[in-house]
Amino acid sequence: MKIKKIILLVIAIQWLSTNLFAQDKFFNIPYESMDYNVTMTYDEVIQYCHLVDSLFDEVQYFTFGKSAQGSDLPYLLIDNRTQNNNKLTLWIQAGIHPGEPEGVEAGFLFIRDVLTYPTLKPLLDKVRIVFIPSFNVDGLKRFGRYNRINQNGPEQMGWRTTAQNLNLNRDFMKADAPEMQAWLNLYNSINPDFMIDCHTTDGADYVYPLTYGLDAFQTLDAGIASWCTENYIPFATNQMDKAGFPIYPYVAFRQWHNPKSGLLMYASRPMLSHGYTLLTDRPCLLIETHMLKPYKIRVDATQRMLLFTFQYLAENAESYLAMLAKADRKRVSDDFIGKPFPISLTTSMNDSVLVEFNGMKYDTIKSKTTGGIYYKYDNTKPEIWQIQLFNKIVVDDSIDLPIAYVVPVEWGIVIDRLQLHGISIIRTTDNQEVKCTASRLSDVSFPKMSYEGCFRPNFAISEFDTTMVIPRSSALVAVKQSKIKVLVWLLDAHSEDSFLKWGFFNAIFEQKEYGEMYVLEPLADEMFKNDKALKAEFETIKKNDPEFAASQWAQMNWIYNHTAWRDQKMNVYPVVKITDRNEYLKLLPSK
After folding, report:
1. How many domains, in total, are found in the chain?
2. CA nearest to 53, candidates 127, 110, 111
3. What's the order of all strands across the beta sheet hosting 210-213?
4. Hey, which residues does 89 pair with through a beta bridge?
5. Mean pLDDT of 432-454
6. CB-based contacts of 183, cutoff 8 Å, min separation 6
7. pLDDT tens figures, 167-215
8. CA-to-CA distance for 327 and 277, rounded, in angstroms?
9. Which residue of 56, 360, 429, 586 has the fewest C-beta atoms within 10 A of its own C-beta?
């Protein structure tokens, strides 16, 4: 009898543990038990990463580096590890701005659905998932109630920037933050095929719980851009509408905060996530949920957008990957390199279309505080607006590509950052004189305030041909490589997101030698006597520039900078272009 009781007890324990385990497979997150208005803390993110890893064979928990404060940067890999050469990788990241946390909850709920729904789990045969639940972990640890004044929940959230006060979603090119440097290493090792970056917007009130950015302009391969606009977006829009979450392209008004001024589309620079991936012809979906909608609606909308994207990619995996492969081949073809390279895009203000927009009734109110106006919305009264949309993106500036760029050895930080982006370089083995094209920068000015820790110079560019000695161990960066667009945007002086524009070369604008008055005064007399045009130029500047006219030092320094003693390298960009193949061959290491 005692033995029978023991057997029954063992069976009961086995049944209980089996059923508890089965229930654990459907794990709940704090958001679900806290009235759908909380987001995870950093410790909870790590806890749930470990939990999901322990529950499902398809999940592996990893870290990809450390934050500035030394905390782990987590990610999950969801993959059934079937042998499939045509499996694509969907990269989902949340918490780049921890005050905008919907992607955290939506991501975990999405993964739970994928791993527990019989209709979804088989799709892992076609698509593996990388999920970063918190990119900016130090910002998440700055947890509090007062981090997003314009936002309707959750109860508490993280802070926008890192512990170094850097906005990671402005750092994709310059890569100053240790978090971004770690991200680039992971991104280049995985090479994902489609990326989703989860955010919350600010601004006006309108019906749409979710807006999106998906740049499909001249930076992106034309075939992939067509796929985005003609295939994926119509599918996602239709599915989201059926699910009760109408979506619309990212909302930016022509006049800030003025709803009736017209909608504006623009091309995203690669300092942003959804601009960066385009440089390797990979789309990035920017999700921007509406900050005034309840947190549950925002999470639900994000979760559905993740789900529908996953399904669409799985259903079209083979054709999508074939399209990416075609773009990769085209990017390194002579045909691509031989065409003008678009280095700046802008929105044409001469062309627009009339669209319907589901807005909210609003009043224009005069501010008692400032005397200006502001807009007050009534979210109980939706309205359909007929509104202009300026959506024609045109190439503002383009360049002819060289065969290669050369970064002199002394600019080692730039060379290191290039390699961090996955760009191949060749180190020169000897001091070698070559003919090249250099850039002289004039009309140089700086803003009063730094931006993302950098003082970004403004300047005019004039290129000139010259002969110079390239020092040993300099970086020869051939243009013909898969990261061609990345390297051109990083190195060309015409790029708004070049290392030059991000202040890496600011020392070249500083004058280090000067002339004394007693030396320059007789020299000026001699120069003006022999060069009437130079004297006329000097007098014109004095006449038209009161500040110059009032400063004896400025005038004599102008004289100094027109003598043979001036610094010949000042305001000359150290990165040069090689446009002749024979000159390029000179720089290659000898076999």
Report:
1. 4
2. 111
3. 59-66, 72-78, 127-132, 88-93, 194-200, 284-289, 210-213, 247-249
4. 128
5. 98
6. 64, 65, 73, 135, 168
7. 999 999 999 999 999 999 999 999 999 999 999 998 889 999 999 999 9
8. 13
9. 429
Each residue's pLDDT tens digit, 255-281: 888 888 999 999 999 999 999 999 999
Give the C-alpha separation, 448 to 69, whole Å. Answer: 29
Q: Do 107 and 225 fall within a single domain?
A: yes
Q: What angle do CA 407, 411, 417 make, to 5 degrees?
A: 80
**Position 75 confidence tier, pLDDT thresholds 50, 70, 90:** very high
Say what angle helices 412-420 and 178-190 make with each other, to 10 degrees.
Answer: 40
- β-pair partners for 90: 129, 194
Domain membership flag for residue 338: no
Handedness of CA 484, 489, 495, 498 (dihedral sign): negative
Report DSSP letters for 365-433, one per residue: EE-TTTSSEEEEEEEEEEEEEEEEEE--EEEEEEE---SEEEE-TT-HHHHHHHHHTT---EE--S-EE
**In which domain, by residue range, is 260 found?**
2-331
pLDDT of 19 strictly over 90 = no
Residue 105 has pLDDT above 80, yes or no: yes
Q: Is residue 336 part of a domain?
A: no
What is the identity of the amino acid at 417? R
If asked whether residues 7 and 61 sit together in one domain, one would say: yes
* Residues 83 and 194: beta-carbon distance below 8 Å: no
Write down the pLDDT at residue 17: 41
CA gap 587, 186 in Å, rounded: 31
* pLDDT tens per residue across span 146-156: 999 999 999 99
Of 296, 331, 366, the position where a domain reaches its end is 331
Of 210-224, 257-271, 526-540, the one with minimum mean pLDDT is 257-271
Instruction: Give the CATH number for residue 260.
Output: 3.40.630.10
In a domain, 339, yes or no: no
Residues 292 and 198 in one domain: yes
Q: Token pair for residue 364?
A: 């224009």
Residues 357 and 309 in one domain: no
In contact, 280 and 506? CB cutoff 8 Å: no
Contacts 24+ apart (CB under 8 A), 231-235: 231/316, 232/283, 232/309, 232/312, 235/308, 235/312
> Tokens at residue 349, please?
């203000």
- Domain stop point among 353, 373, 395: 395
